[in-house]
Amino acid sequence: MKHLCLLLTTGLFVLAACQNNTKSPKTEQEAFEQAAKSPGINAGAEKFTVTTPEGWQRLDTALNDVKATFLFAPASRDGFRSNINVVTESMRGASLDEYFEKNVAVMGQYMQNFSAGTKSEKEINGGKVKILEYSHSQNGLDMDVTMAVIPKNGIAYVITVTAPKGQRAKYQQQFEEVVKSFTIS
What we know:
- By secondary structure, the chain is of the alpha+beta class.
- The strands form two sheets. The protein has a seven-stranded antiparallel sheet with strand order 2-3-4-8-7-6-5, sandwiched between helices.
- It has helices spanning 2-17, 28-37, 96-110, 172-181; strands at residues 48-49, 57-63, 66-77, 80-90, 115-124, 127-138, 141-152, 155-164, 183-184.
- The chain starts with a helix and ends with a strand.
- 40% of the residues are buried.
- It has a single domain (2-184), classed as Mog1/PsbP, alpha/beta/alpha sandwich (Protein Transport Mog1p, Chain A), CATH 3.40.1000.
């Protein structure tokens, strides 16, 4: 369970950031608690489909009432299993640009050793998607992450791939396949 909490924390910092609260989460537990209280949390849960990469394992679960879809890579490295996860929430009327920039700012403020990398924008399945590559540390692990925010009908679908530092490129193809396969069901 602790490993699932670690994997999901990135998405929760993103979701907790958009609640317009004056108190942003400072710890993993605070991120869970704050995200779970959001009236828009899980707004798109169970309303989307993504393709699971060949050889990967899918797990649909809820942690502290936050629903998440995990896609786990076939092998772990040093006790960490690279993964792709999807969490959702209402954008509460914010544009994609507003939602994305606010979240990046909060991540920089509260994630340990956060370092923003490349920001980009793509059109996927006829819609605009914002992407951020970044690195951070959590519980002594240095991680590389790519995050895609897909807006659909006022809901943010946040898809992240998390890998040990220096391993992001190894999972980029699977991440792109998952993002491109995303559809509202």
